[in-house]
Amino acid sequence: MNFKKDREFVGITVLFLDKKVNSVIHGYTPVGRANHYMSSLKACSIVKVDRFKVARCSSMYKITDHQLLIRFISLTIIDEVITGAPRINL
Questions:
Q1: Contacts with 69 (C-beta within 8 Å, 6 or more apart), sequence order
Q2: CB 9 within 8 A of CB 1
Q3: What is the pLDDT of residue 38?
Q4: Which fold has domain 11-80?
Q5: Which of 1, 21, 36, 65 has the greatest number of beta carbons closer than 10 A?
């Protein structure tokens, strides 16, 4: 939400945790595609994401140390991992 503009909804920000390389990558989908993915994204859930775009992360919006950003596109598929999910220590 944009708190400077009367809490206007501007999109969904997610953090991708890669346990194998101990890395956190910023993910984002703009408001135009957000409704399509809202039901697939739940707090503390583990999901598999396919068909996305990778871009350089602008320093203006950088929320992780990683240099890349994952963007959801119209072809992006999100499936919750129910069985066999890795354990991620908080």
A1: 25, 26, 27, 28, 54, 55, 56, 57, 58
A2: yes
A3: 84
A4: OB fold (Dihydrolipoamide Acetyltransferase, E2P) (2.40.50)
A5: 36
Q: Where are the beta strands (DSSP E) in 1-90?
A: 11-18, 23-30, 47-56, 68-80
Structure tokens at 9: 């909804």
- Tens of pLDDT, residue by residue over 36-52, are 888 888 877 788 889 99
Contacts of residue 65, Cβ cutoff 8 Å, sequence gap at least 6: 24
Sketch the domain layout of the chain as residue ranges.
Answer: 11-80
Query: Tokens in use for 59?
Result: 């320093």
